[in-house]
Design goal:
It is a single chain. The chain is of the alpha+beta class. 27% of the residues lie in helices and 42% in strands. The chain is built from 5 helices and 15 strands. The protein has an 8-stranded mixed β-sheet with strand order 5-4-8-2-1-10-14-13. A 4-stranded antiparallel β-sheet has the order 9-15-11-12, with no helix packed on it. Strands 3-7-6 form a 3-stranded antiparallel β-sheet, with no helix packed on it. Helix 1 packs across helix 3. The radius of gyration is 27 Å and the shape is elongated. The protein starts with a helix and ends with a strand. The model has no long low-confidence stretch (mean pLDDT 88).
């Protein structure tokens, strides 16, 4: 926001102070070509500005503003392209809860809020997979339910796969509702309005969980949430270890990963009588991965 205000202030200053001498020069010299105006700006002390090198400063500032404006146009175009995807994910919360000190069994809990942007959306697909050779998905433990305005819209869960990868297609009993304002307003704003009970008849809240066996019982572990082409807003992931069996200080880290670029993410720690929880947060994920990894 501060960068945007700075750019806007620079544009206003450019229009109010830098451009008028050029406009005046062109008015006084109506037959002057564009090239001649540029030459007067390039000259150490041209006919447009009274002070030396002000023409150079004008050219540099104008070039910088053109680059910024091009970036803004591209960002606005990307924003509208992303707004028209089938579903916009407003908020994602994922938690891994270890059942025992040996981490032989864990439950992955998911809560998401999202809304449809176009008509005809009657199902949602979810993949769950293991990263280790010994990890096993307990298929019978898979649950998932979606609600709109506190009314269940889940019709059926169609599952396909085995112990290492499970695909779930959740079908709805109706076409998901949509709203043009929810589609084109920023996701963070729609999320805030939804928390204030607006868009309650549009935003879908989906919850679910599944148990994994022997997925996290090794000396090293990792859990991550990935985004592909389209951004995911407000993503939180938590890993809860049995109290007294959590990784020691320095042996659990949070990362934000985009291709080969890695950024450290500070983890917040909370404790209950039974578990110690480590949490990583990202305000938005776009072709990135939010990860918590640890070793013993």
């Amino acid at each position: 926001m501060l960068k945007a205000l700075a750019v806007i202030a620079t544009i206003v200053g450019w229009w109010q102070f830098a451009w008028p001498p050029i406009a005046f020069y062109r008015k006084q010299n109506a037959d002057t070509s564009f090239g001649e105006v540029v030459w007067e700006l390039v000259r150490f002390k041209g006919a447009i500005y009274d002070e030396p090198i002000l023409g150079w400063i004008f050219i540099l500032v104008t070039a910088a503003l053109v680059v910024v404006l091009i970036q803004w146009v591209r960002a606005i175009n990307d924003y509208f392209q992303n707004s028209r995807v089938g579903i916009s994910v407003l908020e994602t919360e994922m938690e891994v809860v270890m059942h025992d000190a040996a981490r032989s069994m864990a439950t992955i809990k998911r809560r998401q809020t999202f809304h449809a942007n176009r008509s005809g959306i009657t199902a949602y697909r979810l993949d769950t997979g293991t990263d280790t050779a010994t990890g096993r998905i307990i298929r019978a433990s898979m649950t998932q339910e979606s609600q709109v305005a506190n009314k269940v819209v889940t019709k059926e869960l169609i599952m396909r796969g085995g112990d290492s990868n499970l695909e779930v297609i959740e079908t709805f009993d109706r076409e998901l509702p949509r709203n043009v304002f929810a589609t084109y307003l920023p996701n963070w704003f729609v999320c805030a309005l939804h928390k204030a009970w607006l868009f309650d008849n549009v935003v879908v809240t989906r919850t679910g969980e599944v148990n994994l066996q022997n997925e996290f019982d090794g000396p090293e572990g990792v859990y991550s949430v990935n985004s592909t082409k389209y951004p995911i807003s407000r993503t939180n992931i938590r890993v809860s270890f049995v109290a007294g069996a959590e990784p020691s200080n320095g042996n659990i880290r949070g990362f934000l990963i985009r291709e080969n670029v890695v950024e450290d993410i500070a983890l917040t720690v909370s404790k209950t009588s039974t578990h110690v929880t480590f949490e990583a947060r990202a305000s938005s994920l776009h072709m990135e991965s939010l990860r918590i990894q640890w070793q013993f």
